Amino acid sequence: MLYNKINNLLGWLCFGTAAITYTLTLEPSVSFWDCGEFISCAYRLQVSHQPGYPLFAMIGKAFSLLSMGDNTKVPYFTNMASALASAATVMFLFWTITALAKKLMVKRGGNPTPHNQKLIMAAGLVGALAFTFSDTFWYSAVETIVFAQAALCVSVVFWAILKMGSTCR
């Protein structure tokens, strides 16, 4: 039980660290490449060139409403959607790493020893925070681009596979 509480707390700590980092370094306006197209299409709910874009556009539209009618703030708030999606990706990555490390270090049905718990949590923190501060991921986390939300979808699905696999035995 203590293991689960520590695991959840550290996962949320990774989310908080990533969210603060990405929010503080958020692109305040429009980047030079596809981001302007994505922002304007999300703001007006228009069609863009990406497959899978309708969900991204609806989420972007919801975040653009936080601008309260100030069109100059729309890019900032749609960029915020990517930052929060990326932070959630980091959290699910932490939980994925700890689930895999636990499977490797603990026999089926057993509980990790205190020493193994520390190693598992350290592995999760190192992996998740290394990913948080990696150049490519950070770059896509601070601007309106589909990669942040796509990474979140992949990380949630992979984590759910591990979660369901451990409860179905």
Automatic annotation (TrEMBL):
The record's annotation in InterPro entries points to: GT117_domain-containing, TMEM260-like
Q: Which residues cross the membrane?
A: 76-98, 119-139, 145-162
Keywords in alphabetical order, please.
Answer: Membrane, Transmembrane, Transmembrane helix
On whether Iron is a keyword of this UniProt record, the answer is no
Q: Which Pfam family is one of those matched by this entry?
A: TMEM260-like
Query: Which superkingdom is the protein from?
Result: Bacteria
Iron is among the record's keywords: no
Official protein name in the record: DUF2723 domain-containing protein
Q: Which organism is it from?
A: Mucilaginibacter terrae
